[in-house]
């Protein structure tokens, strides 16, 4: 009887019985895997090369477009940006610059379509908001214009440009508000601009000029004086400071600034304003530090000038229907004239008051019935406003 263990196959016998194809299959699979990897790498490389070529071509057209855009060759820039977009249809920068070129080429409807799409993608983009504000302003759509301008002021800008770009957007908004005669809103924006003024004299002058246009002469004067602290001889600040001080009735200060500004022979406006300022100073009998004799002489001269103004104005005012007419004023002037002498005026301060009240009244009424006064009559009108209610 055979022993059970003698019938078991040995280990060597079992290995020799494996199919011969299995031994060859492993290297074949490895080879196929290597080929697949190589093909994948090759395809990826070809794809990257193609994408790089497309990107290079798009960027080449884009740079040409930027060059033409900067040179204001807008039609060429439009074509070049469109060509760039053929290679990168969703490129944000390409679309943004195409919109700018379309605006330059007066194709605002096409530009608007691109800008709205860009705004929906990045509503915080400062440049896009600014361009949308300009289009709305051009169409006289004030509410959208104001909204987009404010978005641009508080939007994202490149780090080193943020302050300059935000300030430029606010300045443009102020210009727009002044153009549509929204002076109250313009002044609010100006106050915000003033709070962020730098040390540059040009910024102070620009703010002063804006405040003059809104007739806020106090703030205008402050801005010009801030500029003069850094640049004492700045001609624009001297002229602006003289104008603002003049409008505020601060004639001694106005005289100082205007004298310096009028040293420039090309500044004829300051020279003319200086003449009026000096007349206002010389013809004011109520100025401080003046002697009784000098005051009486000034009143005599002012009274005579007011009479001349009445005579020249009378023919023009006959058809005017007014409660206080030059004819009534003429009667008052004729009645008071015999009492107007240096001796009587020196003795009677109340007569000085009565005479000058009539002079100021004559200048006010004739400025309405006969048009804006010039020269000495303008100076008297200004003196009257200065002492009105005093």
Q: Describe the sheet with the most strands.
A: none
Q: Report the β-strand fraction as a percent range.
A: under 5%
Radius of gyration: 42 Å
Ends distance = 149 Å
Quickly count the helices: 19
The total beta strand count reads: 0
Envelope shape: rod-shaped
The proportion of residues forming helix, as a percent range, comes to over 70%
List segments where confidence is low: pLDDT < 50 over at least 5 consecutive residues.
1-6, 319-324
Give the SSE string: HHHHHHHHHHHHHHHHHHH
SS class: mainly alpha
Descriptive notes:
- The model is unreliable at 1-6 and 319-324 (pLDDT under 50).
- The protein is an all-alpha fold and 390 residues long.
- The protein has helices at 11-16, 20-70, 74-87, 92-104, 108-121, 126-138, 142-153, 162-179, 183-195, 201-213, 217-230, 235-247, 251-261, 268-282, 292-317, 326-336, 342-347, 349-369, 375-386.
- The protein is rod-shaped, with a radius of gyration of 42 Å.
- Helix 2 packs antiparallel against helix 3 (74-87), helix 8 (162-179) runs antiparallel to helix 9 and helix 12 runs parallel beside helix 14.
- Among the domains are: 47-121, Serine Threonine Protein Phosphatase 5, Tetratricopeptide repeat; 292-386.
- The chain is built from 19 helices and no strands.
List keywords for this structure.
390 residues, mainly alpha, Serine Threonine Protein Phosphatase 5, Tetratricopeptide repeat
How is the secondary structure organized here?
Elements: H1 11-16, H2 20-70, H3 74-87, H4 92-104, H5 108-121, H6 126-138, H7 142-153, H8 162-179, H9 183-195, H10 201-213, H11 217-230, H12 235-247, H13 251-261, H14 268-282, H15 292-317, H16 326-336, H17 342-347, H18 349-369, H19 375-386
